[in-house]
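Entry type: protein chain
Record version: 2
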Amino acid sequence: MDRPGAVHCRLTNRGLLVWLGQASRQPPVLDFFDWRGGASATLRKFDYEDSEVSDGDDLATLVRLVTSGHLHPEIGLLRTGSLRPMCCAPCSRARSVAMPSSTSLARRWPSRTRRVRWQGGTVTSRSGADPPTYGYVAGRLATSLADVTSDPAALDGAGFWIVVQTFEGGLRCLRFAEVREATLPPSRPWQPIRGDWASSLDHQKYTAAVRDIRAEIAAGEVYQVNLCRRLSTPLPDPPDLTALAGRIQAGNPAPYFAVVQAPAAGLAIVSASPERFLARHGSTMTTQPIKGTAVTAADMLEKDIAENVMIVDMARNDLARIARVGSVDVPELCRLEEHPGLVHLVSTVRAELRAGVRWPEILTALTPAASISGTPKEAALTQIRRLEPVPREIYCGLVGWVDADTRRADLAVGIRTFWHAEEELRFGTGAGITWGSDPDGEWEESALKARRLIGLLGAAP
């Protein structure tokens, strides 16, 4: 007889259905996973619903299995600490999989919650051979993947974590057992990509969206909106990520360069981000938003300075939600910073974390980042959802590291970033739109940010 809170899975022709209660009935769906078969199959979270949970241990087991890549289609009834097979057609290889106890995780999982859908895409290799799993951040090579979770509370525990969050809020935290200072692993030379890149918004649609935002600004609905477009080129198999990383690192060095290759977590990312989202050193929090982009310093406009000041104000407000009263400070405003092929205006906002605030509250208060959303933030996000035809996914999210043992972290905004998903190599770009924006000028700014990096992929080493 089933316990009231038992978690069940059933493989259907549409995917993997997960629910609570008796196996013979299907109450409101707890979760649904789009099942993608093949030589190297993966699971992708498809939808989420609010659900009452009467057995926290079983839910925690499910969450632990899904986020660590251990959930298989032949698995049926889930119990704490183990899985019992309940084979459903068309699978034929039912087996049991032993799992560690999930009691500690269950204590951290609320009985009623709304989880954010992962929109980072999936990585599926047709060749059947998964590349090695590793992360490379801040000149450190992380290997021996020990844990994968979507629970930000894990970052307050122990260990070295590489963190990836999508713009839409989907989170992946990867704990590695071995971390050492190193150069990027050696690889074969990068093989140039010669295919065309498609844009989610072409020139006509992008400039029309800029005019639309200016109309909203004139009506008093919003002050600034970051308008983005996603570039993509067909690439059925994941690229040689290490070769890609070497090509980008050599041709476009960046202060927050990062590589995340983790097939079990659905991640294949190379980031040449120039923008720090959040650095943490004990209780000291620092963010350095970028706003204002030009080819040279002489090309900067008054609009760029005004945009930076607006975003700094919003970053101050975001930090104030988790900071000690009176500790928020702006030590640098509109500093000029040079990067390959362009210059940026960068400001620094610093604050002291309020006692008792942990990583779940930090990420909730500060994301999405001020610089890649707009102001007021909620109004800007409404415009983004209305005008951008595809999710941003990794672009404009977060990529970086958290050392829970030393209470240090450095997370970058996921810009100037390539990722592989749904048999495509993707790259995002965009521009901040204000009343002073020229539609064609903003299109050109978005092209400027992409031109150098996209060019590196198509050129021979």
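Comment: Residues 1-7, 9-127 have pLDDT under 50 and may be disordered.
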